[in-house]
Amino acid sequence: MTFELSDRVQTVPPSGIRRFFEIAEERDDVISLGVGEPDFATPWAARDAAITSLEQGKTSYTANRGRRDLREAIADYVADRFDLGYDPDEEIIVTAGASEAVDLAFRAFVDPGDTVAIAQPSYISYEPGVIFAGGEVLPVSTDEEDDFRLTVEGLEEAGADEADMLVLCYPNNPTGAIMPAEDLEPIAEFAREHDLMVLSDEIYAELTYDGEHTSIATFEGMRERTIVFNGFSKAHAMTGLRLGYALGPADAIAAMNKIHQYTMLSAPTTAQYAALEALDSCESDVREMVSQYDRRRQFVLSRFREIGMDVFEAKGAFYCFPEVPEGFTAEEFAEEVLREQGVAVVPGDVFGAGGDGHLRISYATGLEDLREALARIEAFVDDHA
Amino acid sequence: MSEREVLELLRENARYSTADIARMTDLEEDEVEAAIEELEATGVVCGYQAVVDWDKLEDERVRAEVELNVRLDRETGYDDISQRLARFPQVKALRLVSGDYDFDMEVEGDSIREVSQFISEKVAPVPEITQTVTHYVMTSYKENGIELGDGEDDERLSFSP
Ligand SMILES: Cc1ncc(COP(=O)(O)O)c(C=O)c1O
User: Fold this and answer.
1) What ipTM was reported for this prediction?
2) Which of A153, A191, A297, B156 is most open to solvent, judged by the fewest CB atoms within 10 Å of its CB?
3) Pick from A35, A123, A125: which is nearest to B156 by CB?
4) Residues A328-365 as b or e (16 or more Cβ within 10 Å = b)
5) Domain residue ranges in chain A
6) pLDDT at residue A298 in the model
7) Are the folds of A7-42+284-383 and A44-281 the same?
8) Which atom of ligand 1 is found nearest the CA of A36?
9) Residue B154 reports pLDDT greater than 90
């Protein structure tokens, strides 16, 4: 028999980077700046705690919302780091990666026909998530001239005042943009004025290189309309352990938990032990990784300027977002630099509105490789000048 | 504070070029050079050496950790003893430590015979030294913060969202 695919699945186009995988396969000297995960291993203390938990046979399900001690540790951590106050019993849910939490939120709060405004360029999972939930996507593009920060003008231009929900992600994947408090304030006001629910993906919060990260949920009247997502993948280098969480008002978290309890039961138990240890004792590991990223960030930005490619000063996550030189689309540049020089980068178009003409460069790669990759990009640009 | 930052980077990898150090920090290249000069002039940085995994080489290198106990008297202090010992080129490191013994000494040579002879003929006879305990290094797993061995491959996919 042939399967009749659901309309929702058919609506979502295949991933834009699939093709690049195949080209990358053809060479064995590829240096990848296309990786969206840390090059560091999980801090040893957290791995050790995971191993110990396995040795002790702690391999059963946990409470649906995650272990109580982990939720308490998360509550303390977000209070301490980001000034966010959430009750571990009612307002926190631990999930299989922030990915699951984002999906739960779309399914819990989006009805067919609802409009979800998404600040773009952005992480590629939001759009399919909205479509799988039956909603309509409204792209809100951000611009290089605003350092890829979301503005009220941008929201108005896109017609986001009519939307039901707004999704933002700062520090941003793919641009590396951050939203300082003074830029968030008017966005918060817009959300209140137009009664928008806000999903704020703050998974890169620790990776902020200029000042401190501010959460939109800390603004007046925002807590009750915002779900904050965070997790252990980026700051604690735990991608493969699959652990994240959502913070929100009790009734919202209860709604998300209703889906989670039937579809996931509980987040991976071993990962929960690792996460507890990560919050307990790995702060200095996180600081060390952040300082490494920051050095690489400055290195990569300097090199792009030397090469003569325009790049705005990315201040968060582990990405920068240079413009492709004239004569190329982002797609062409990415394909040719991969074929000719063996450097993998992701064309900005993949990330939605406002991404065209740019490349996402990940610096979650050791300095040696970054140095070599940038030298190859320089050679490529010189060859085609 | 620029010296602190430069020092940190040199400790990470002393072969970073001044240009790369400048790119990784907010400093200009000549500021980096000045910071390095200052660190060297004041003796904060007193040398640069390679971190070696001897197991990867054919030729044998014998290393020993030696515990030394000493008895001080009115004329002789720790500094006097340490100077006598530190001048031998076979001694690679020498530290006064707390605990059951006084000095912790690292010795290196081409053979066990050479190292043993050095300890029995040059170190043990020093009048203030009352006891030596020699531990030959059999395998090294980590040196100067660097894990030895073959390292792990990067298993990440070349593209991820
Ligand atoms: C912005 C953003 N949100 C969420 C995720 C997924 O995180 P997790 O591993 O916690 O599911 C990623 C991963 O690339 C991301 O970049």
Assistant:
1) 0.85
2) A153
3) A35
4) bebbebbbebbeebbbbbbbbbbbbbbbbbbbbbbbbb
5) 7-42+284-383, 44-281
6) 98
7) no
8) 14
9) no
Mean pLDDT of chain B, nearest integer: 94
Is CATH 3.50.50.60 the classification given to domain B54-143? Answer: no
Note the pLDDT of residue B153.
84
Q: How far apart are CA A120 and CA A130, in angstroms?
A: 14
Per-residue pLDDT tens for A343-353?
999 999 999 98
The three-state secondary structure class of B84 is: helix
Q: Specify the pLDDT at position A226.
A: 98
Q: b/e per residue, A117-134, with b = 16+ CB within 10 A?
A: bbbbbbbbebbbbbbbbe
Task: Please tell me the predicted confidence (pLDDT) of residue B116.
Answer: 97
Q: Which CATH number fits domain B2-41: 1.10.3470, 1.25.40, 3.30.70, 1.10.10?
A: 1.10.10
The structure tokens listed for A108 are 């819990």
ω into A171 cis (within 30 of 0):
yes
**CA–CA dist A163, B115 (Å, integer):** 79
CATH architecture of A44-281: 3-Layer(aba) Sandwich (3.40)
Among A295, A360, A371, the strongest candidate for a mutation testing the B interface, having the largest count of B CBs within 10 A, is A295
Q: What's the pLDDT score for residue A326?
A: 94
Tell me: the pLDDT tens digits for A107-144?
999 999 999 999 999 999 999 999 999 999 999 999 99
**β-pairing verdict for A226-231 and A197-201:** parallel
Instruction: Closest CB to B158: pick one of A30, A125, A371.
Output: A30
Helix (H) or strand (E) segment spanning residue B138: none
Cα(A101) to centroid(ligand 1), Å:
10
d(CA A120, CA A100): 20
Token pair 């028999």 is found at A1
Ligand 1 geometric centre to CA of A355 (Å): 18
Ordered by start, the domain boundaries in chain B are 2-41, 54-143
| Residue A382 CB neighbour total at 10 angstroms | 10
What is residue B2's predicted lDDT score, i.e. its pLDDT? 86
- Chain B residue whose CA is closest to A30: B158
Q: CATH topology for A7-42+284-383?
A: Aspartate Aminotransferase, domain 1 (3.90.1150)
Long-range contacts: B119-127, Cβ < 8 Å, 24+? Answer: B119/B64, B119/B66, B122/B88, B122/B90, B123/B66, B123/B68, B123/B85, B126/B81, B126/B84, B126/B85
Tokens of B121: 């003929």
